[in-house]
Amino acid sequence: VSGAMSIHSMAQQRQKLYIRACEIFCAVWGLSSVLVVAFQCKLPTPWNYSASNTCINVSAFWTYFSILNILTDFLIIALMINNVRHIQTSSGKKALVMGVFGSRIL
Questions:
Q1: How far is Cα of residue 63 from the mean position of the Cα atoms in its chain?
Q2: What is the distance of C-alpha 21 from the center of its chain?
Q3: Considering the entire predicted model, what is its pTM?
Q4: Which member of 34, 39, 51, 79 has the greatest number of CB atoms within 10 A?
Q5: Cβ neighbours of residue 19 under 8 Å, at least 6 residues apart?
Q6: Residue 88 — φ and ψ, nearest 5°?
Q7: Residue 22: how many CB atoms within 10 A of its CB?
Q8: Residues 57/85, Cβ–Cβ less than 8 Å
Q9: How far apart are CA 80 and CA 6, in angstroms?
Q10: Per-residue confidence of the chain (106 residues) as pLDDT tens digits?
């Protein structure tokens, strides 16, 4: 979310809708992940992992979490590259900004 918000501050007006949609998507994904972790086992004892038949499939959850994490990182980087392309400065400075934001991939 912080990456999308920093891009939002320097984006052109026509790109701000896409960036806002990305921010909302990241927030919903993050909230859903927190809720799944908090309530991964059935109530009234969501912390009781010993009763595995009442808990979620942890492998499936981490697959969901990881795939969306990768997708949101690539989405934020794509928005940043599109935004930086239109800045009127030297190619070297553009590459520096893209490198700083693109380091998210590592």
A1: 15
A2: 11
A3: 0.69
A4: 79
A5: 4, 7, 8, 11, 79
A6: -90, 90
A7: 21
A8: no
A9: 9
A10: 556 666 666 667 777 888 888 888 989 999 999 998 888 887 777 777 776 667 888 899 999 999 998 888 888 888 888 877 777 788 888 788 777 766 666 6
- Structure-token pair, residue 76: 């934020």
pLDDT recorded at residue 32: 92
DSSP of 59-95, one letter per residue? Answer: HHHHHHHHHHHHHHHHHHHHHHHHHHHTS-S-HHHHH
Give me the numbers of helices (H) and strands (E) for the chain, helices first please.
Answer: 4, 0
Residue 55 φ/ψ, nearest 5 degrees: -110, 165
